[in-house]
Amino acid sequence: MNNHKREIKSFFYSQYFSDGLRISAGILLPSLVMMQLGNFNLGLTLSLGALCICTIDSPGPVSQKRNAMAIGNLSLFAVAMITGFARLNVYALGIEITLFSFIFSMFNVYGNRAASVGTSSLLIMIFMMDKDIPPPELPLFCATILAGGLWYMVFSMIFFGIRPYRAAQQTLGENVADIARFLRIKADFYRPEVDIDENYRKLVLQQIKVSNHQDAVRELLFKSRLMVKESTAASRILVLTFNDLVDMFEQIMATHYDYAYIREKFKDTGVLHEIAVFLNHVADELDNVGYSILANSRPEKTSNLEFRLDQLKLKIDEVGADDKETSNLVLKKILINLRDLTKSISNIYKYYHSKASESLIGTPDNDVEYSKFVTHQDYAPHILFDNLSLKSATFKHALRVSLVCLIGYITSKYISLGGHSYWVLLTIIVILKPGFSLSKQRNYQRLIGTIGGGIIGILILTFIPDKTVQFILLVVLMVGAYSFLRLNYVVSVIFMTPYVLILFKFLGLGQINIFQERIIDTLIGSSIALIASYIIFPTWEFEQIKETLESVITANINYLKKISESIAGKEVSITEYKLARKDVYVNSANLSATFERMTSEPKSKQRNIKDIHKFVVLNHILSSYTANIASALIRTGPQKPHADTLKLVKRSIAVLKETVKKLKGETATPAAPKLETGKAEATKPEADKAPLTADDILMKEQLGFINKISVDIAKVTENILR
To answer: Residue 607 burial (CB < 10 Å; 0-12/13-18/19+)?
Structure first.
């Protein structure tokens, strides 16, 4: 019961709810104020501008929001003016819809923020289609829409200015909860009753969420000079906590074992169940930290992990003592990893209970290092022109949107749908996504949400006639709709539909007719969008899979190169390791997301789906073992070169490079990799004579396994390419 209460509270502390409050207030306030002043129609026009600009107000650095909303407002005014005049001629409006749908959909090449500016512009175009504004009054009407957009922009900036750290704090807290869920899935590998393959599926899905949230935190923390350069304890604690969380996630990723072997060997000892229980206790502590960060309070330990760890150690020792033939070495390795996890959590607790944290970020050049961990969007014009080709998925999507919007416009004009036929185009814009699987998912969500929400709206209007109560419900539903917009789209639409019906009731329109019209328009729009995504320049995941596989293998090669350099005796900085690690995790998450989308496509388009799943699992194992070795090398520093270990890592790199060549369509030239000349070769005789230490033997075993996984990846890739 307490967990459910905490989940509910976490939602109200989350960025999703604060976004819902901010967006709802930004849209409603102009209408409420103008209604009190006796000019409700002016308020509605201002709210229309705010409604369009709020689509740009997604999470990210404040400077990026401000710039995007400023550009969005300029576009808002221009598109509103053009549409206002174009609507006077049915052919002119058709041409405008086709052109603008294409142009603004091409904004996707510049990333999500630019894409939201395009969406905002398309929204005002759609809303202006049926506005019966006489031409002389049009400039003033469009200026009022612009004023509403500017109002929302200023309101949003003030909102963030009051609590500049809150957005980063909320995103960080949610990321902690993601990692806790990832750890619970890891714990299930130690439960014999859990299917290993299915658990891998859950693991890679959760990895996508962790990676996305980590990118969001990086954007907020490291793209903001305020966060990086501020000398306050609050900003430093956020940065330190995030750094430790990323390292902790690497530790969790690095703890990979042959779970089938471990289950077979230790299934009767009971120790695997104890390991799973301990990992869940660690996850509980992480959830506690995440909740405290969300609630803006100091986290307090809820259990004594050190004591539990000592109890687990005794049980692991018993396994080795009871059966001399059963080695408990692998269990001891697991114990070491669990001890490292416990230390990491203790460190995070210390940040919130020690003034020493204020001096932990010292050098003024930290922002230079941090800036390397965030991507910087290039807005050069040539990027747009380079994508004007059928080889570009964005170009095909933009063509599809423009053609479908034209079809939707013609349909709405020549089929009697009532006075709000723009809902057909609105449905198309919302549903139509670059990939078929995303369009299919959004289509289903929109239909279910509209029907469910419509029924709720009719019940409210039928059985709750009091206008004051209706208005309170309208505000609650509006906040709910915008709170769940990024969290759960079905729930968002379920909230949004009754709020629209209540709004139209206040505007003097019949609720039953509006509900019927909305359902019909949604059905028409969603049908057109789904059919179009299947037959008009369709984009299937198998068409993009080569590039995705190539990216993830290249990232693994770069990570292994850092290990190779360190083994060869070269100094490799922690920043270099972390950048290589981030690249692997981001590309791995992209691969997992691609695979997941592929499973939603028609069976005929799911090419080599089993082999791709094998690749996803093998990639996870490879990155886990590489992270394990990297962690050890970061602790020990450059190694004394040893020919055997160098050969192993170079052989793995060579195998993966040949695989990349095959993916590119180049002729592979398999050959035994030669050792690089230089320090490694110069010291080869001494290295060969030097006896191997226990750590050297362990590393050699791990590199041997990485070599085996690399060969397996090469074989699976060949199957995918057939």
So the answer is: middle
Q: Mean pLDDT over residues 29-56, rounded?
A: 93
* Residues contacting 631, CB < 8 A, separation 6+: 250, 251, 254
Domain end marker among 162, 197, 219: 162
Residue for token pair 């221009």: 78
State percent of the chain over pLDDT 70.
89
Q: If you average pLDDT over residues 383-393, what whole number do you get?
A: 88
Q: What is the largest CA-CA distance in the chain?
A: 94
The letter for the amino acid at 547 is: E
Token pair for 607: 């090419």
Return the CA Rg of the chain.
29
- Range with the poorest average pLDDT among 80-84, 350-354, 499-503, 565-569: 350-354
Residue type, 465: P
- Please determine, for residue 103, whether its predicted confidence score (pLDDT) is greater than 70: yes
CB atoms inside a 10 Å sphere around CB 444: 16
Lowest mean pLDDT among 134-148, 358-372, 447-461: 358-372
Question: What distance in Å separates the CA atoms of residue 204 and residue 616, rounded to the nearest whole number?
Answer: 8
Per-residue pLDDT reduced to its tens digit, 306-331: 889 999 988 888 876 655 555 677 88
Is 270 within the bounds of a domain? yes
- Name the token pair of 91: 């052919």
Distance, in Å, from the CA atom of 659 to the CA atom of 450, rounded to the nearest integer, reads: 47
CB 316 within 8 Å of CB 335:
yes
Q: How many domains does the chain have?
A: 4
Does 156 lie in the same domain as 204?
A: no
> Domain check: are 292 and 281 in the same one?
yes
Q: Which of 350, 235, 206, 340 is nearest to 289 (CA)?
A: 350
Rounded to a whole number of angstroms, the distance between the first and last alpha carbons of the chain is: 53
Res 363: pLDDT:
42
Residue of 344, 312, 340, 342 lying closest to 328 (CA atoms) = 312
* Tokens read off for 312: 């687990």
Q: Cβ neighbours of residue 571 under 8 Å, at least 6 residues apart?
A: 637, 638
Structure tokens at 490: 């079905």
Query: Is the confidence at residue 603, as pLDDT, over 90?
Result: no
| pLDDT score of 88 more than 70 | yes
